[in-house]
Write a structure and sequence with these properties.
44% of the residues lie in helices and 10% in strands. The chain is of the alpha/beta class and 547 residues long. The chain folds into three domains: 1-132, Substrate Binding Domain Of Dnak, Chain:A, Domain 2; 222-354, 3-Layer(aba) Sandwich (Rossmann fold), CATH 3.40.50; 373-543, Rossmann fold (3-Layer(aba) Sandwich), CATH 3.40.50. A six-stranded parallel sheet has the order 4-3-2-5-6-7. Strands 13-10-9-14-15 form a five-stranded parallel sheet, covered by helices on one side. Bound molecules: FE-S-O hybrid cluster and iron/sulfur cluster.
Length: 547
């Protein structure tokens, strides 16, 4: 196996024996084959576009396959094999259509290639992984594009679950995948494709934002309870709001409480969810604490997307309490499918919860949430006055992901040491490094403004663009905003490319720069966009001009 798609990759080079995330070599290779199959289906979608109305299901399959390979989404070999088989039959249908229309199919579209059985799949996958590309710079850009597309798949799939789709985004994703391994695409072509991913990333982010806020209202400033009640509970993790809605509806009046976990925390700030008495609040910290926190939670946990950690040792005892849906999967855990209308039956989880003890309290109090674009813009006058009057000197975007590495303590220390006239803008699970520190307020505005999930990073871009307009600035980089982003998985890659597309420069990325960036590609990012890593808290404060 070879995988270097996330920040925790072994030795910051690549996982070759087993994933640090827990991915086995078999799972890694099956995921490589799934990506390869996705490229093949995407190539047919692209080839037929304009000549035949490709069924939307083909694009949806491509999106879901990409999503299944995101870090910590799916560890279930059987589910991945099923998806590969689905892709093969999808490709066969498209292939016959191409033949029927007399369209010449180039070799790279792999006519008649079919794999049967796990062993054959794994054997074939040896040739189609990351290392298939010899030139390290071409490989670096191909993977950067792939990870950006994986990130985009998450946005697009959650939006689609709420009935919002954009065919142009689907078609772009298919075309980008189809072009990716084209030998005629040199470095310049791949750099241009990378930028295109950022451009469509902004569209995908806006699509999901519209889907979430259009369905559930605009998040509003909320104190989110982090304590527990004395009823059995279900913990819902991941990012899918439609699943949360269905779970809240189905648990109404059953005596079973619902708690959000990790990236589902921001759901507590949506008006549509606040009306449910059975939504108690948020339980625990960011995703990687789950192997401890799921034990004390006592009840079942529903994963609606990443980030899932395969439990080991005594933690494995709770495996029978894990349920998955959408792209998430884990061998030995029940996976819940939707019907044709997108409805899911969670009765089994609810019955399971009734037999479990109530959660053990691990903390109490409340944390601030709900500062997505609408809420921030509602207090824009106060914010602008605070900037003009000098009460707010700088905004520090500390969005992104959290993960296990010790050196992520940097972000807690950075937040603690920020002067009192700075405000942190955040989104994603990176906030768990500092959202319980009580950093205070400036004129009634919390010093940590949480826009929501990593999927809500779009809010931060909107706020920056609004401030640029209010202050009449030509360049978004003239705002008193600096970017100190923590990354872990592939959605962060998409957010980065989207910010670059919007013209944001000098983004600092940590705790380490991606292993998949070759020195030459890193140079392109440094020279054109001022991308940098992190050093020490003190040094970086100086670099950011924070005193
Ligand atoms: Fe955090 Fe994990 Fe949100 Fe990422 S919960 S690192 O994949 O999706 O951000
Ligand atoms: Fe390694 Fe990350 Fe890939 Fe898992 S997702 S195998 S930890 S690089």
């Amino acid at each position: 196996m070879f995988c270097y798609q996330c920040q925790e990759t072994a030795m910051n080079k690549g996982c070759t024996i087993r994933g640090v995330c827990g991915k086995t070599p078999e799972t890694a290779k099956l995921q490589d084959l799934l990506i390869y199959t996705a490229k093949s289906v995407a190539s047919y979608c692209s080839l037929l576009d304009g000549k035949y109305e490709v069924p939307k299901e083909a694009y949806v399959w491509v999106v879901n396959s990409l999503f299944m390979t995101i870090t910590n989404a799916n560890f279930d070999d059987d589910a991945i094999i099923k998806e590969i088989e689905k892709g093969q039959s999808c490709r066969e249908t498209l292939e016959s259509k191409a033949k029927e229309l007399g369209i010449q199919v180039p070799d790279k579209y792999l006519q008649n290639l079919k794999f049967t059985g796990k062993e054959n799949m794994i054997a074939f996958a040896e040739n189609v992984g990351v290392l298939r590309t010899e030139n390290e710079d071409i490989r670096s850009l191909r993977e950067l594009v792939t990870y950006g597309l994986k990130g985009m798949s998450a946005y697009v799939e959650h939006a689609s679950n709420l009935g919002k789709e954009d065919m142009e985004v689907y078609k772009f994703m298919a075309k980008a995948l189809a072009d990716l391994d084209d030998e005629s695409f040199g470095l310049d072509g791949l750099v241009a494709l990378t930028m295109e991913v950022g451009k469509h990333g902004v569209t995908a982010m806006a699509l999901l934002d519209g889907a979430n806020t259009g369905t559930y209202g605009n998040p509003e400033a909320t104190k989110v309870n982090i304590g527990v009640r004395n009823n059995p509970g279900i913990l819902i993790s991941g990012h899918d709001l439609r699943d949360l809605e269905q779970l809240l509806e189905q648990t109404k009046g059953t005596g079973v409480d619902i708690y959000t976990h990790s990236e589902m925390l921001p759901a507590n700030s949506y008006p549509a969810f606040k009306k449910y008495d059975n939504l108690v609040g948020n339980y625990g910290g960011s995703w990687w604490h789950q192997t401890k926190e799921f034990i004390s939670f006592n009840g079942p946990v529903l994963f609606t997307s990443n980030c899932l950690v395969p439990p080991r040792g005594s933690a494995a005892d709770y495996l029978d309490r894990i349920y998955t849906t959408n792209s998430a999967g884990m061998h030995g855990c029940e996976h819940i499918l939707k019907d044709a209308e997108g409805k899911k039956d969670f009765s089994k989880i609810i019955e399971h919860a009734k037999k479990c003890a109530s959660p053990v309290e691990i903390e109490n109090g409340a944390i601030d949430g709900g500062f997505a674009h609408n809420q921030i813009l509602a207090v824009a006058d106060t914010v602008v006055e605070a900037i003009k009057g000098g009460a707010i000197k700088k905004f520090v975007v500390m969005a992104g992901c959290d993960a296990r590495m010790q050196d992520r303590k940097y972000y807690t220390e950075f937040a603690e040491k920020l002067p009192k006239d700075t405000v942190i803008l955040t989104a994603g699970c990176a906030k768990y490094r500092y959202n319980k520190l009580n950093l205070g307020e400036i004129g009634g505005i919390p010093r940590v403004l949480d826009a929501g999930q990593c999927n809500d990073s779009y809010s931060l871009a909107l706020v920056a663009m609004k401030l640029q307009e209010v202050f009449g600035l030509d360049d978004i980089n003239d705002l008193p905003i600096v970017y100190n982003i923590a990354w872990y998985e592939q959605k962060a890659c998409l957010v980065l490319l989207a910010l670059l597309h919007l013209g944001v420069k000098n983004i600092h990325l940590g705790p380490t720069l991606p292993a998949f960036l070759s020195p030459a590609v890193t140079n392109v990012l440094v020279e054109n966009f001022g991308i940098a890593g992190i050093t020490s808290v003190e040094e970086d404060m100086k670099i950011f001009g924070i005193e």
